[in-house]
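#help-structures
NK: newbie question, is this the right format to request a structure? protein is Glycosyltransferase 2-like domain-containing protein
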Amino acid sequence: MRIVVFSYNRGRYLHNCLDSLFRHAPQYPVTVMDDGSTDPAVDTALEAFGERIRVIRNDRASTAYLGGLYANMQQALDDRDGDDLALFIQDDQQIVRDLDERDEQHWKRFFAVHPEAVELATTFLKANRRPGSLNFHIDPEVPVYFRDDSVSRRAHFAATGLFHTARLREADWGFMPTEGENNQQARELGVRMGFTPYPFMMWLPNAESSKFRRKSLLHRFAEWYREVGFYPYEPMTPSEVKWLYERDLSRLPLAQEVLRPTGMKEDQQWLFEDATKSIRFIHRRLKHKKKKEAARARNKGRSHEERSGE
């Protein structure tokens, strides 16, 4: 297996991601694909790991591989340097436990038993997903989870995880500009994605966004409102890893029940989406608040008029 890290403008997240890779999976070669970062902390992170990593920098101003994450994923797919299995991980993710022979045997068995599979999702599941999205059935032969397509049709593709790159190339796969288009392509090609019951990586909760060189006032407010920060995970303990492998697999591996981020408040909500997606929510909350204040003012005015009439 080879590991490809996709990076853009989040130096401390990238350093944390790489540190977790060399702590928990030092046996695998690592390539960092940076999408034209302007954050000096990215250079600092890359220099810290020196010759241990292979670095490919893509200039956003060039016409080659223009388009960000999925264009860089296509470049990684076209790069045949390494094994047919490639772990795609993003800079705001982290490996949380050691990878060993037991994991490798599980990956090989999954792809052997399911020749139609091109991807194994390797992250923990999110406990705060919409109702119905956590409906899975277990294939005990591997074992592996599959999502019920009648409940959610978004179970065919994810931008991170363990990819069988040889099968993707055989299927003439080409990464599309959006997640929805990639998911549609996966459905049309009839390829499949499983979910490991033994996850080993996860997005950091409440991470800052990196999409924009300059953040608007509303964007910055959204990040403040959502308590965005840098909350890396504590590595899983041996007893936690033992539980992960020996538990009843009907109990899903939910990030909020297993992982321990540092620096978060005890009652802080875990969010795994860009804060910009909260802007509409914030708009609605502010609009609702203004309506309540206006109604309160009207009621106060009526009360004053009624008392004056008396």
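mod (FA): yep, format's fine, and the tokens are attached above. The two ends are 84 Å apart (CA to CA).
NK: thank you!
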